[in-house]
Amino acid sequence: MKYYKSFILFSLFAWTFISCNTDDLERDIDALKDRVTNVEAQVQRLNDEMNMIRVLLDGNKTITDYSINGDTYTLTLSNGETLTLTPGATGGNYPSIEIGDNGNWVIGGVDTGWCAEAEDGEDATTTPQFKIEANAADGGKKYWYVSYDNGASWTVLENGLAEGTNSNSNPISGVTVNGDNFEITFGGQKYLIPIVKGLECIINVPEGVTDGIWMLAGGGESSFTVKVNLAEGDLVRVNAPSEWKAKLSSYTTGTTEVTVTVTPPSTPSECIIVVEVTHGVNTATDQIKAKTTSDSYWAEYQAGFDIKIGDVIINKFDYPNAELKNDGESITTEGLFFVAKDATVSLSNNSLKDLILIAENKNEYSKVKTLSGKPAIEVKLLCKGIHLFAETEGLTRAYWLNLGGKEAVEQVYFERCKIEIPDGKNFSYFSGGVGITNFVIHSCRISMARNTASLNFLNLYSRAYENIEIKNNIFYCRDEDAYCNSVLITLGTGSINGNVVIDNNTFINILNHSSNYYVTLPFKSGWSMKHNLVWYDNGEQGKTKALIGKAVDGVTIDNKDFVNNRVFTTLAATTLEWKIFNSIPGAGFNNSIEVATANTPFEDGFVDVEGKYTLKPEYQGIGATIK
């Protein structure tokens, strides 16, 4: 296997309107459009070349067909994939891209830890993707961003400034058809990909594929089909680990489909199933990643599976000392803990620096009770599938979770949790000496008790904070015929330097009659609060309700970041007037929210004090959906 190394640069030209003449203005607008188009083309070209490099690294694809349009080649691979390639110099400002001696991608001079090379005949697992966006941390300058998970998450490249000029060429400097081979000049060397007309090996994606992984029940038979085009003497094989019993159906020559039947082990397991077609000296392959379904995070951890909480990957290799806590046991130290099904575990140490809590069973919450005061987390708190509640004796402070200490809090993540906030308590409080890098709460049920004084869910203080994501959660008042007086987020004299996303949440009898809005952050351009749903049948006080207190003076607020916020009430004579911002953030901004009193967004079976409901079909996509 050869190591490919390439340093590529790309530029965005600065532009300025220098004339108020209409013709000059039109020309400048056209020039801006051309530059935007050029940026898009540069990004597309780099991603196309990364795909081509992936094929070179895999080394197990052939080309079944190709066409040429000017300088652009369109290639059809033996697994049915189509690639477009336009080689040659472009004059840009690309990030540096290379493969280190250890086989990892090195992007912007940094070893990413992601393997670039194919191993044991399998495809390379990661192909970086790139985009250009403004970097708020550097005054909005354009930077390259990279993703290693097919665009699910993006990271700015510290050395990836996309502004400037140079004359460097692309990594793929030449392409030509040489007999029965497609010849690529890359990094000063020539590489060949065979052209074999008609050779195909294309797995038809079976049912049960999620995020590129075929999920199937352990111990039972499942199957998928493979499209092939066989000549006399061609061979078809399937390769899988021995515990994954895989067999082929019979096959004949011509264009046909072959069935692969798989019987996986009954225990948690995952593998890559490879199908190959051999034609003479050439072999075409396709593959599918398969994984047995399981309802146990603990069993998957023991099997070596990854468990994801936000952007953190938990497995037994990186976290080898996990414990399974059973009913009646206590957590007294920091670390990784799984909580058994139907168990109630106590969190009895109130000063834990780094703590990860995961339910044993995927479909049921595991209970964790906090004792004798407030738990203090200094660095990291990650929870998945946890029902968090408190023993109220000893809760003398106005807040429950104390987030802070000698060091900054790096990550506070709650995912698919049930959070039962103690009566009359704020949920969290950040100590005055620290900030937080990432606060994420996804797909959680959060309940509060009837109260008259306004309580804060996320009470920020006077420090600098980065990213806050509150998505797909249900906030509800757990007392019957009552409302909860609450603010979602409040900020003291501190600042938020990253991004804020408050999308697809549902608020059931959660109102605020002290400040008259849910969020007291000064909102910035690009932050969002959209697709949220408010329902209430209690709490008629005041005249005006706003989702957000205000916008930062002088910033541009776009309506698209605040669309589809809906308010419903059973109170036909409601006196509340709802809007997005307490004051209109700019000319042309649609600040109003219509209040619906004649209909309900929920199907029969809605229980407000449990936060349980099913949305009617016409309201799908608004509010939270938690299975």
Discrete helix count? 2
Share of residues in helices: under 10%
The shape is globular
- Terminal CA distance reads 46 Å
Gyration radius from CA atoms, angstroms:
28 Å
Structural class: mainly beta
Q: Which spans have pLDDT < 50 for at least 5 consecutive residues?
A: 1-37
Overall pLDDT metric = 82
**Major sheet attributes:** 14 strands, parallel
Number of DSSP strands?
Answer: 52
Portion in strands: 35-45%
Describe the 3D structure.
By secondary structure, the chain is mainly β. Helices cover 7% and strands 44% of the residues. It has two helices and 52 strands. The strands form ten sheets. Strands 25, 27, 29, 31, 33, 34, 36, 37, 39, 40, 42, 43, 44 and 46 form a 14-stranded parallel beta sheet that branches. A hairpin with a 5-residue loop joins strand 8 (129-135) and strand 9. The longest helix is centred in the N-terminal third of the chain and has 37 residues, at 22-58. The model is unreliable at 1-37 (pLDDT under 50).
Short characterization:
The chain is mainly β and 627 residues long.
Keywords, separated by commas or semicolons:
14-stranded parallel beta sheet; 2 helices; mainly beta; 11-stranded parallel beta sheet; 627 residues
Draw up the topology in text.
Layout: E1 5-7, H1 22-58, E2 63-69, E3 72-77, E4 82-85, E5 96-99, E6 104-107, E7 110-115, E8 129-135, E9 141-147, E10 155-161, E11 172-178, E12 181-186, E13 189-194, E14 201-203, E15 209-210, E16 213-216, E17 222-230, E18 235-239, E19 245-248, E20 254-263, E21 270-279, E22 282-292, H2 297-302, E23 307-309, E24 312-314, E25 323-325, E26 330-331, E27 335-339, E28 344-347, E29 351-359, E30 366-370, E31 376-384, E32 386-390, E33 399-403, E34 409-415, E35 418-420, E36 426-430, E37 436-442, E38 445-448, E39 455-459, E40 464-471, E41 474-477, E42 484-490, E43 495-496, E44 500-503, E45 506-508, E46 510-511, E47 517-523, E48 533-536, E49 544-551, E50 566-569, E51 577-581, E52 595-596
Parallel strand pairs: 16-22, 25-27, 26-28, 27-29, 28-30, 29-31, 30-32, 31-33, 31-34, 32-35, 33-36, 34-37, 35-38, 36-39, 37-40, 38-41, 39-42, 40-43, 40-44, 41-45, 42-46, 45-48, 47-49, 48-50, 49-51, 50-52
Antiparallel strand pairs: 1-5, 2-3, 3-4, 5-6, 6-7, 8-9, 9-10, 11-12, 12-13, 14-17, 15-16, 17-20, 18-21, 19-20, 21-22, 23-24
